From TrEMBL, chains A, B, C, D:
It comes from Paenirhodobacter enshiensis. The lineage of its organism: Bacteria, Pseudomonadati, Pseudomonadota, Alphaproteobacteria, Rhodobacterales. This is Carbonic anhydrase. PROSITE patterns: PROK_CO2_ANHYDRASE_2. It is an enzyme of class 4 (lyase). One of its GO terms (molecular function) is zinc ion binding.
Amino acid sequence: MRDHVRPLPSYLVSRFHGWQATTYTENKGWYRRLADEGQRPRAMIIACCDSRVHVSSIFGADSGEFFSHRNIANLVPPYTPDGDHHGTSAAVEYAVTSLKVAHLIVLGHSQCGGVHGCHEMCTGHAPELEEKTSFVGTWLDLLRPAYEAVKDLPEDKQIEALEKQGVVTSLANLMTFPFVKDAIEAGTMTLHGLWHDIGAGSLEQFNPATGAFEVV
Amino acid sequence: MRDHVRPLPSYLVSRFHGWQATTYTENKGWYRRLADEGQRPRAMIIACCDSRVHVSSIFGADSGEFFSHRNIANLVPPYTPDGDHHGTSAAVEYAVTSLKVAHLIVLGHSQCGGVHGCHEMCTGHAPELEEKTSFVGTWLDLLRPAYEAVKDLPEDKQIEALEKQGVVTSLANLMTFPFVKDAIEAGTMTLHGLWHDIGAGSLEQFNPATGAFEVV
Amino acid sequence: MRDHVRPLPSYLVSRFHGWQATTYTENKGWYRRLADEGQRPRAMIIACCDSRVHVSSIFGADSGEFFSHRNIANLVPPYTPDGDHHGTSAAVEYAVTSLKVAHLIVLGHSQCGGVHGCHEMCTGHAPELEEKTSFVGTWLDLLRPAYEAVKDLPEDKQIEALEKQGVVTSLANLMTFPFVKDAIEAGTMTLHGLWHDIGAGSLEQFNPATGAFEVV
Amino acid sequence: MRDHVRPLPSYLVSRFHGWQATTYTENKGWYRRLADEGQRPRAMIIACCDSRVHVSSIFGADSGEFFSHRNIANLVPPYTPDGDHHGTSAAVEYAVTSLKVAHLIVLGHSQCGGVHGCHEMCTGHAPELEEKTSFVGTWLDLLRPAYEAVKDLPEDKQIEALEKQGVVTSLANLMTFPFVKDAIEAGTMTLHGLWHDIGAGSLEQFNPATGAFEVV
């Protein structure tokens, strides 16, 4: 450990000090209340780790607004209470049962490297991801069922369709969690499925009535 | 599904349209390049889902800078290539082997609900978290080993100490991943351990030489 | 040559070794990637050579962020493809057509010696700069047209006004380059005009709607 | 103009405000003196525009230390007092005759896109740069004479050799300026030739006695 952990790069130190002297100073009262009274986020967002998905920016959100879980390809596994470590399921459980968020949002995006990797696996082009030791490949197995819904599309439409179908699959998996179902049926929480086009700067949402994504 | 998925709340629609008309418009060229050429983030940050941890804000980061994984209590499990779905390990693997990030940063924080829950478990006050069906409890088992290092401290110091010890444990677990170890030994990546005090607006970093966290 | 080129002064050697042992070591992975994969700067900044204009500092920028051209008085000449050596035009061409930067920023500043010299020329106080053999005077001829816009102001306002008018002139000249115009019209690049007050530590930006510089 | 010039991207605004509240505030007295009394830089540095050449960082330099001219490939043309606009010559003239810098430093670097382009021209692989309308190509003509010194080296050594030979050529061209020669002969200024390896983080300096670059 002694040899591996290093001081923070100085450009981040400078920027942090800048934040401390401006944003923090101007919002100190609120940040102290958030610390003292605990968070009370209105929504949970499940988004991709991708550096180009800037959730708080696109929704103008400040500290305290979104409980954010980010994993590769914004996937939610089905309900599997087997005693293993399930980071995503734990985050959903905490948001729904402890924080009682009012909205549970799954946010997919264009040019998703994870979705692309899954497509490669499903079309037989990524044997390295299919090895049992590949954490990425094993994780993306969660998205495989969604490939069924897109495999007959023209090839150049499949990736974007799979990005969107992944959101739909995650929404469906969320419904397998008893506490999610209960909150929805009690009318205390709503589900939302989004897809963000990074280059075009647009946002589409899943319309369950039509089964399509529509521009917001 | 038809009855469960709803349109995005209008306050988020409004804000998104505001972002689209301002930030997106002013940065369109850059966002398009990020879409066309792919991301090249300099660092991966592993942070908590907590809504009060505003990573991009405190580091003045814009789209494309940080690959962000967020889970409850910013935990990294030890290397366990057992073929199960490991969201955190998959994110680390992707960041290190595909994106080749230069810095891997674990960011803990004060008033962490997850760490508090683990402390409750360890002191016998949270039987509900110890049930096998609790995803939160099972996830927080990953933090249990860190409790050993703090259990003899005065009680009112234990929570903060456990938040920090959680970061140290995650750093140690990261070193059990062969690809993390390889990147560090090759000199292409560095590890960093941080703890952010939400109310005080301060930042501390782990100094492996002293074993303590020091103000940045 | 043998007698003219000397070893680097030791104070710079010491500082370089300090940088190498700290900043370089902490960021080695990133610097190697920048070397191996090439730069991908988000913005080009055209600033003055003046030692008091510390571009990377005021914008918290690290290696790889800004493509920087610096000349006396941050001037851009009009488009003149006459086969002569045009260092500024070459830098702009490279940034726009090869690097495809998303932002092109002209940064003027207070107490600019070059702008002061041009003002002296325009008011007949600097015959030595008007000699054909003066590189400084000939270079500052590029700023002369801007004097028209400030010559009727009270004398003590003229210098600062000329510094700002120089930025506006450079922005207008940039628009005479076909590749700049194309990138702007394609929506892949934006222009920005700034003026930095060195003593006050403030920054103003040109608002084309009002024709004035406004505090950022 | 109205439609082309835009507000500064908000990530730069935030960072600037951070700088203002920290670095500026802490150094206000010095910055005000620099504004009131004028700059007095010890050295002029002629470096490349490349975003990876972070001059102030590698030399630990703060505001007021270096008069910086940056152009593509850090080139200095020979003395040509023909009444045309010569940005580089103007910057050198101002530094030497007005600011009376004590050191004049030419800093080359590895992976230089400009030098690479010149090598492509010299080996007949870049007809587009040889067109009279290419500002980059015309600018790089200044480096062509240096190709003679490297063309018989093994091909994989030529680029780095040309980067270094470019520095030597610029140093020789500097000596053709009467005011440079005068200052050197009067013993009030020294010349220095450097080459920085971006990936390795090393620095070499030209030793005129051996004609080679040696590690600093």
